[in-house]
Amino acid sequence: MPTTDPRVDAYIAKSAEFAQPILAHLRAVVHAACPEVEETMKWSFPHFMYKGMMCSMAAFKAHCAFNFWKAELMMARDDINREAMGHFGRIAAVKDLPAKKVLTGYIRQAMKLNDDGVSAPARAKPATPRPLQIPDDLHAALDAVPAARRHFDAFTPGKQREYADWLNEAKTETTRARRREQAVEWIAEGKSRNWKYEKC
Questions:
Q1: Is the sign of the CA dihedral 94, 99, 101, 106 positive or negative?
Q2: Can you give the residue ranges of the YdhG-like domain (predicted)?
Q3: How much is the pTM?
Q4: Within a domain: 121
Q5: Tens digit of pLDDT for each residue in 141-189?
Q6: In the prediction, which pLDDT does 43 show?
Q7: What is the CATH number of the domain that holds 66?
Q8: What domain count does the chain have?
Q9: How far apart are CA 196 and CA 3, in angstroms?
Q10: Is 190's pLDDT higher than 70?
Q11: In angstroms, rounded to a whole number, what is the distance separating the alpha carbons of residues 115 and 179?
């Protein structure tokens, strides 16, 4: 009988309808491949632990993601899909995942790395940081709300960049305006762009 965490049950239950079978499938494959696995929640999404961090899954508005903590040591560089947070791209249906046999192989590789005490590779930092450019419309919106301007100016450059990138990634002016309004609301409350996923 697998050891499950009721918080993971709740996460799956409140996920979008398309995501529920994907998350349930991933969970079942992980438990079948690694009966000793332990479930937990970190950064507000499910993680699977086996002698340390092993893998995680997450659901978003239109896709899911599955991530291995030590993917760079297990998968060929060309096999890692960088389109989403995880290593398998944007997963919109179970058929978007590798076959169960392939996933099981990855899970067993991840277990062996943890059995052997191999550390995750250090993330390489870019040699020169990208220049921080705040869009004019965001500057104007912040200036109109003093609390937001105060908080934004106190943010680290990284947190400022997250909001700037979010705005610049909008495909339509309508989306951009909606994001700008949401950004100012969150910033006025002192929240970073990814506040929902930060540790409490």
A1: negative
A2: 20-111
A3: 0.60
A4: no
A5: 999 999 999 999 999 988 999 999 999 888 899 999 999 999 999 999 9
A6: 85
A7: 3.90.1150.200
A8: 2
A9: 26
A10: yes
A11: 44
CA of 148: how far to CAs of 138, 159, 178, 183, in Å?
A: 11, 13, 16, 9
Going by the DSSP 8-state scheme, the letter that residue 189 receives in this structure is T
Quote the CA–CA distance of 55 and 8 in Å, as a whole number. 14
Question: What is the DSSP-derived secondary structure letter of residue 88?
Answer: B
The pLDDT tens digits for 38-81 are 999 988 899 999 999 999 999 998 899 999 988 888 876 545 55
User: Are 85 and 154 members of one domain?
Assistant: no
Which residues of the chain form beta strands (DSSP E)? 38-42, 45-49, 53-59, 64-68
Q: Which residue has the tokens 């309004």?
A: 181
Residues in the chain: 200
Per the structure block, which two tokens stand in for 81?
A: 């899909």
Residues 28 and 97 in one domain: yes
Q: Answer yes or no: do 55 and 93 share one domain.
A: yes
88 and 46 both lie in a single domain: yes
Alpha-carbon distance 31 to 37, whole Å? Answer: 6
Query: pLDDT value at position 128?
Result: 64
